Amino acid sequence: MMTKVAAAGAAGLVAVAAAGCGGATEEADGVSVVTGVYPLEWLASQVGGEAVTVTNLTEPGAEPHDLELSPRQIGVISDADVALYIQGMQPAVDDAVAQQAADSALDVAQVVELREVPSADGGGTDPHMWLDPQRMAEVAGSLGERLAEIDPDGAAAYRANAQRVADELGTLEAEYTERLDDCETRNFVVSHAAFGYLADKYDLNQIGITGIEPDSEPSPARMAEVAETVREQGVTTIFTETLVSPAVAETVAEETGARTAVLDPLEGITDASPGDDYPSVMRANLDTLAEALSCS
């Protein structure tokens, strides 16, 4: 097997020497996958196992929508055997993949159907497909097949890993279905409308203070509208998240007497929670939702 990284190894050593950089440089072995956002990093690590090196472009604690790439990161994209990304979520990644890695791209939007966002939530395509375990399982299968093509010697292992991940995600989906089946209310208010896949799948009603973009600012009219809905529907919890300011959600909570709780859109993992991973955060979200919605 001759991967893109291995093929570029000698050239990379020459470039380092010519630049006068100190320290040893190792030639990369195995298959390399680059991802744009944390849930895809987790998925690639699970499917690839020890045979695959996975590099995520978004640093822990950073908001992925606003990612800007350094020349080094563009080089990582160019050298990767697979560039796993969601077209439309991170414009800088879209551009770099189109220019540097078109042949190695695996666009999630070509694997699973992405939901269209209502105009009231900003319009466009919703990239947060990882909040639907079934869609994640489908991507796992496609990634397993792509890795098997690149590394035929490891094909059986990649396919077995993909099936194991799909089974784990199936269990997670069943837990959500059972826990959210019987709830006193199906309305939940979030700081930004990232939970549409979850709402659609489990028959919930997402009410976003802001739209699909986490850094958008709600108008005074929108704030008043959400506050009125909270009062009318008896919503008890306003959900904040981990990577953006909770100020907007806290304002609505203060005006309505609701409490706040964290519902993590899983766009990234923070350094403050090194033990967290995709399944554990998804289950924490389920616990938080079930409590807020008074599910039996």
Automatic annotation (TrEMBL):
The keyword Signal applies. Residues 1-17 form the signal peptide. GO terms for biological process: metal ion transport. Keywords: Signal, Transport. InterPro entries: Bact_metal-bind_prot9 (IPR050492), ZnuA-like (IPR006127). SUPFAM superfamilies: Helical backbone' metal receptor. The keyword Translocase does not apply. One of its GO terms (molecular function) is metal ion binding. Belongs to the bacterial solute-binding protein 9 family. PANTHER family: HIGH-AFFINITY ZINC UPTAKE SYSTEM PROTEIN ZNUA, HIGH-AFFINITY ZINC UPTAKE SYSTEM PROTEIN ZNUA-RELATED. This is Zinc transport system substrate-binding protein. It comes from Marinactinospora thermotolerans DSM 45154.
